[in-house]
Amino acid sequence: MIKLDKIHLTFCHRLPERSFFWKGKQFPVCARCTGIHVGYLTFPLFLFSIFTLNIWWTMLLIIPTYLDGTVQAVTNWESNNILRVVSGVLAGIGSMSLVSIIGKFIGMQILLLIN
After folding, report:
1. For residue 12, what is the DSSP state?
2. Distance in angstroms (rounded) separating the CA atoms of residues 99 and 45
3. What is the secondary structure of 26-94 as a DSSP string?
């Protein structure tokens, strides 16, 4: 049976046990979102085709962060910040790959319409 009472609309960003600290100050977002934002830095690599992934690898990179968050929300298992940041970085990279795949597809469709 799934426990739905643990699922709520508040974010974990402000929980000290789910955040990183730098020089005694807490990051404004949780470890998972910190990882996602770090992963976002890969966007230029995908945009300029320095690095490419197919759609299946892209989706595979995004899945772990959803699994980690969902399992944590519906069970008594508590993730740790290392797992959160690693799954977040993977999701950030996968998201930027997906954005570039979709953007390039739309761009090609526009170019085909013009010609």
Report:
1. S
2. 12
3. E-SS-HHHHHHHHHHTTHHHHHTTSS---HHHHHHHHHHHHHHHHHHHHSS----HHHHHHHHHHHHHH
1 in any annotated domain: no
Query: What 3-state class would DSSP assign to 14?
Result: coil
Domain count, the chain: 1
Query: pTM for the complete prediction?
Result: 0.83
State which residues form the domain around 32: 28-114
Residue carrying the six token digits 């974990």: 12
Q: How far is CA 23 from CA 18, 30, 80, 109, in A?
A: 17, 16, 21, 49
The 10s digit of each residue's pLDDT in 32-90 is 999 999 999 999 999 999 999 999 999 999 999 999 988 988 888 888 999 999 999 99
